[in-house]
Design goal:
about 80% helix, globular, about 230 residues, mainly alpha
């Protein structure tokens, strides 16, 4: 009975986390904005720090990764899937900024929100049940990784970074994103690994992934509303 109470508490905390993170934006704070707008030349260290901070507070990226690793038990599998995601977002982050790809930020973030819905639905075995076919999960993680990278590139482009030292700064930012991703994933894995030791993991896994989908739909509605209002 006591053990069940601990698991119930853990589930409650996880539920609150899933919903509370949708209420906060991982936008750039005022101090960082001033730095990005005023920076000239190479600033590898500061960009590395900004990238790490942005990823740790990037609720949409973290929610997607929670869905990706939720049913992955082997370290090798986790590494493979996270690598596909990393390759995807690294490519579009760098090329998006360097080649000045202009895409509406609300639409990109709406697609990122859909990636969260997709992964929760996939974890619920929804594709096999409704369509009788399972998409290639590695390829879909790579594709959504490309969109996540475009989301990062779009946010960076808003500050019109100086061309001097741009590539080095972007590499620093991207490395920081990877560090932030590693830290965030490590924390999530600790929680999930602890939860997997108890029978309630499978019992509540459906509820958790429904909450994951719900969070994605909330973010989707938020971004589409922003897109609509930006037209006026």
């Amino acid at each position: 009975m006591k053990q069940f109470k601990h698991i119930k508490l853990l589930l409650t905390v996880l539920t609150l986390c899933l919903f509370s993170i949708t209420a906060y934006s991982h936008g750039v704070d005022e101090e960082t904005q001033k730095f990005l707008l005023g920076n000239n030349g190479i600033a590898f260290g500061p960009f590395l720090y900004i990238g790490a901070k942005h990823m740790i507070t990037g609720y949409d990226h973290i929610l997607f990764l929670i869905g990706v690793i939720f049913f992955l038990y082997k370290p090798k599998e986790i590494l493979i899937y996270v690598s596909f995601f990393t390759i995807g977002h690294s490519l579009t982050l760098l090329f998006g900024v360097l080649f000045d790809l202009q895409i509406n930020a609300f639409l990109i973030d709406a697609i990122i929100a859909l990636s969260i819905v997709y992964k929760g639905f996939d974890n619920l075995n929804g594709f096999k049940q409704l369509f009788g076919k399972q998409p290639n999960t590695k390829i879909t993680v790579l594709i959504f990784g490309l969109f996540h990278g475009l989301g990062l590139a779009t946010k960076i482009q808003e500050f019109g970074l100086n061309e001097d030292g741009l590539l080095i700064n972007l590499l620093g930012f991207n490395l920081g994103v990877e560090i932030g991703q590693f830290l965030a994933l490590g924390f999530v894995l600790l929680i999930i690994s602890f939860w997997r030791r108890h029978k309630s993991f499978m019992y509540f896994s459906k509820t958790t992934n429904i909450l994951l989908m719900a969070s994605g739909f909330v973010l989707l509605a938020f971004q589409l509303t922003g897109f609509y209002l930006s037209k006026f």
